[in-house]
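PROTEIN DESIGN WORKSHEET
SECTION A - STRUCTURE
LENGTH: 270
TOKENS:
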């Protein structure tokens, strides 16, 4: 319904089916591609720029503000990306886009056909990428942009399981301690009443753990699937290292892999 509202605003037909999973809207100053995925939707705004863009001249800024603010759902991740010619003066651009970053992540992509810079930090609610295009044609450029945005999206979606893993870890620590006490009580039971009490507590504890398994199984499974997608998209970027900069693959191995390994370990322990 919210997508229909925007199309009606621009005098465009809204005859798509209610279960449509893909729309493209031409807003004049911007283009919007909306896609519905398994448990989230993506809104990708495109805007043409002729030269080094003004900091405020984002594609999102070209869309109706009140419509953007009323987009339903919970915001999971938001990204700004500049896709510019290779001869764009890079130093002032990086200083403007990443003013407080101590460490930039950078690499050449697609056989040195483009260069990407990011710091994976949130600046005023958005992460940022700067891509300088050497000789990517439109098709390869589109794929590169999509892969970078998907890396960011799937990275955050995978990390949704990490707070769950920490909470489950606390539950399991308590359950394991209680189980040790129950085993000790079991060995010292002297009559039927003692055994019934142990059995009741053991049944309650088993139910708690089973409930935890049932309520977190999807989140842990989804995290593993999203992490595989991140690894696949990073591989498809075909990165080449730039001297003095960490690359995207290295960043993921240092920052994302430990969190996802923790989730996997907690799922096995559960």
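SECTION B - SEQUENCE
RESIDUE ASSIGNMENT:
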């Amino acid at each position: 319904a919210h997508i229909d509202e925007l199309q009606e605003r621009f005098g465009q037909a809204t005859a798509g089916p209610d279960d449509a999973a893909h729309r493209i809207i031409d807003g004049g100053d911007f283009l919007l591609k909306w896609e519905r995925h398994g448990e989230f939707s993506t809104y990708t705004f495109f805007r043409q720029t002729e030269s080094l863009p003004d900091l405020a001249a984002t594609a999102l800024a070209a869309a109706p503000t009140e419509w953007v603010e009323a987009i339903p759902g919970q915001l999971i991740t938001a990204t700004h990306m500049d896709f510019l010619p290779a001869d764009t003066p890079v130093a002032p651009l990086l200083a403007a886009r990443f003013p407080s970053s101590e460490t930039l992540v950078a690499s050449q992509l697609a056989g040195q056909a483009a260069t990407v810079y990011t710091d994976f930090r949130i600046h005023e609610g958005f992460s940022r990428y700067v891509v300088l295009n050497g000789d990517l044609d439109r098709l390869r450029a589109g794929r590169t942009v999509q892969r970078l945005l998907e890396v960011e999206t799937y990275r955050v979606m995978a990390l949704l399981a990490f707070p769950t893993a920490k909470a489950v870890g606390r539950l399991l620590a308590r359950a394991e301690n209680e189980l040790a006490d129950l085993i000790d009580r079991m060995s010292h039971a002297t009559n039927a009443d003692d055994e019934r009490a142990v059995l009741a507590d053991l049944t309650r504890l088993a139910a708690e753990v089973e409930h935890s398994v049932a309520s977190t199984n999807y989140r842990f499974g989804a995290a593993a699937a999203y992490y595989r997608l991140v690894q696949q998209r990073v591989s498809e970027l075909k990165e080449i290292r730039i001297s003095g900069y960490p690359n995207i693959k290295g960043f993921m191995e240092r920052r994302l892999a430990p969190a996802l390994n923790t989730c996997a370990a907690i799922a096995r322990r559960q």
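SECTION C - NOTES
The two ends are 41 Å apart (CA to CA).
Helices lie at 2-9, 65-69, 90-97, 138-159, 161-187, 192-237, 248-269.
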